[in-house]
Amino acid sequence: MSENIESHLEEKRIFKPSAAFSKKSALGSFKAYKKLHAKSLKNPEKFWAGEASHLLWRRKWKKVLRWKLPFSRWFDGGQINASENCLDRHLDGPRRNKAAIIWEGEPGERRTLTYQQLHRQTCVFANVLKRNGVKKGDRVLIYMPLVPEAVIAMLACARIGAVHTVVFGGFSSESIKDRLADSGAKVVVTADAGYRRGQVVPLKQNVDHAIEGNTAVHRVIVHRRANLDIHMRDGRDVWWHQEADAVDANCPPVPLDSEHPLFILYTSGSTGKPKGILHTTGGYLVGTASTTRYIFDLREEDIYWCTADVGWITGHSYLVYGPLANGATCVLYEGAPNWPEPDRFWKIIAELGVTILYTAPTAIRAFMKWGDEWPKKHDLSSLRLLGSVGEPINPEAWMWYHKLIGGGRCPIVDTWWQTETGAILISPLPGATPLKPGTATLPFFGIDAAIVDDKGREVPHGEGGKLVIRKPWPSMLRTIHGDKARYKKQYWSEVKGSYFTGDGARRDKDGYFWIVGRIDDVLNVAGHRLGTAEVESALVGHPSVAEAAVVGKPDEIKGQGVVAFVTLREGHAASPELADQLRRHVGQAIGPIAKPDEVRFAEALPKTRSGKIMRRLLKQIASGGQISGDTTTLEDFSVLARLGNNTGE
Ligand code: WTA
């Protein structure tokens, strides 16, 4: 039996950077990337020190890295403030009056904040926090819609050395409760409500439920977003705007030790309670600022739009800290992509002249499903660079994104990283790396990524295995909040001496990294280990399929059988014939071994609120079992009820 993950899909399309793009980009050629990458791996600390020197330090570090596996200290002895780097630093020159944030609410209103204005409002809110008892090191829980105040609240915490823990505004009271208990936050920042798909989401009410009977939370600061009539508890709840009137705008940033905690962000483990991923200040800022500059090829005149919510790591790193540290103009959109119509994104891009778009495969596949007519209605010619994050982007979705959205001229940066890694670790550099649809290509500078077998030995190119990172990097998580043992076990016990990502991957003959899915999801069919991403990608390659999720179910003969859950594109109907066609299609694309035993049609797939398919639930459904384990991150519970046994009959 083979112990490594096999790979059968071969992608032959290759897209070289255009001369016009390369000429203007930071790196210019593949040769330059390779040379700099090799150099950076010989001495990562030198590379990162160079990157750190782009930031403003209040005191220079004594040592770039102190490494006592698995605990790192970066830029030790140095002092820095993240809010100062994102704001104050830009106020001396023309960036002072440049738009930092262009915000659009779901109902359609727009607000622009220049760097000067964002700075002022951050200072005011930092003083509000202080006035309400928040001190350096205290945790502040932020539960907000995607409005500028969410960013202001984060930067205000960073300014005074408080540690923010942002909880996505789509999460329930229950999730807030868990995160409050684990983080020990005593102050909550929220809004009366937010807008989502035309509905008013009662955020403050959710907070009220979450803190019922919790005496630790002594203050709730409420931003008025929707003019909703809400209950304000005397002595505990205060209005943001009233508090702001009571303070001045003078709040110098506090110099903080490089290893001072910046934030805790919770991410769900596949089982058990959510993990509070802890990131610290200096290294995180160096990692996010440096990757933003290189990977998004930022220029002064760009209008950059990362569609993630601040409740995710992508929102932290590439909506707030990375772009603002680079003085970028960032678009923020509060609502759903299909509200009021499925062309909302394209309308925003055309009207604001967005040049860089960073979004997720789940959104791209939804757009494909809604039909080509929506993007075609708008002029998307301002775009020059596209990005993808969160899941493997299957080649068909990549091609659609490239053609329909990028007009065939925009490079796509398929960026691989995790909440834990803080910043992008594997990604093409636009203008330098030749692209292939479906691969995140090659590691960033200073990143030593490898694919290893169960014994930790690097496997030859073409073979699958576990994706590990062999050297520490500045934006790596420092620990799981309050649980060092879990940190060690989860990330550092699987492969000796290396950080284990939990992902399965392989490298092709050019050394490019292909993520094949989470190791826990890997299928084992008659002794062959198959990544879920490949089978799914083959299914989505069929013209009728919008989205697919593949799981294993126990099979007496083969060990595991393959069950495919499929949603169809507009205009296609489920039938037993189509199910058969799809089985054959996978057989042809990958090989008979990967042919699904069952194809089940579904209206929608169960996803987390950040858009990842919850294969764990599908596995339980496929084996006819009961749904158990943590479902608090599930986006839409009705999806589960609708996932019947539809084989098209
Ligand atoms: C997956 C999101 C393939 C992967 C930033 C990883 C990807 C997990 C990619 C982390 C990509 C993210 N290609 N897979 N470009 N980006 N993933 O913590 O399985 O929400 O381990 O961080 O998403 O998800 P997280």
Notable features of this structure?
GMP Synthetase, Chain A, domain 3; 7-stranded mixed beta sheet; 5-stranded parallel beta sheet; 23% strand; globular; 649 residues; binds 5'-O-[(S)-ethoxy(hydroxy)phosphoryl]adenosine; alpha/beta
How would you describe what is shown here?
The chain is built from 20 helices and 32 strands. The radius of gyration is 24 Å and the shape is globular. The protein is 30% helix and 23% strand. Strands 7-6-19-18-20-21-22 form a seven-stranded mixed β-sheet, with helices on both faces. Strands 9-8-10-13-14 form a five-stranded parallel β-sheet, with helices on both faces. The mean pLDDT is 93. The longest helix is centred in the first third of the chain and has 17 residues, at 115-131. It has a domain at 522-643: GMP Synthetase, Chain A, domain 3 (2-Layer Sandwich), CATH 3.30.300.30. The protein has 649 residues and is of the alpha/beta class. Residues 267, 313-314, 389-392, 414-419, 440, 501-503, 515, 518, 610 line the site of 5'-O-[(S)-ethoxy(hydroxy)phosphoryl]adenosine.
Biggest β-sheet, characterized?
7 strands, mixed
CATH class descriptor of the domain at 522-643: Alpha Beta
- Could you name the CATH homologous superfamily of the domain at 522-643? ANL, C-terminal domain
Q: What's the CATH topology name of the domain at 522-643? A: GMP Synthetase, Chain A, domain 3
Strand order within the widest sheet?
Answer: 7-6-19-18-20-21-22
Number of helices: 20
Distance between the termini: 37 Å
The CATH architecture assignment of the domain at 522-643 turns out to be 2-Layer Sandwich
The whole-number mean of residue pLDDT values reads 93
Uncertain regions: pLDDT < 50 for 5+ in a row?
none
Number of strands: 32
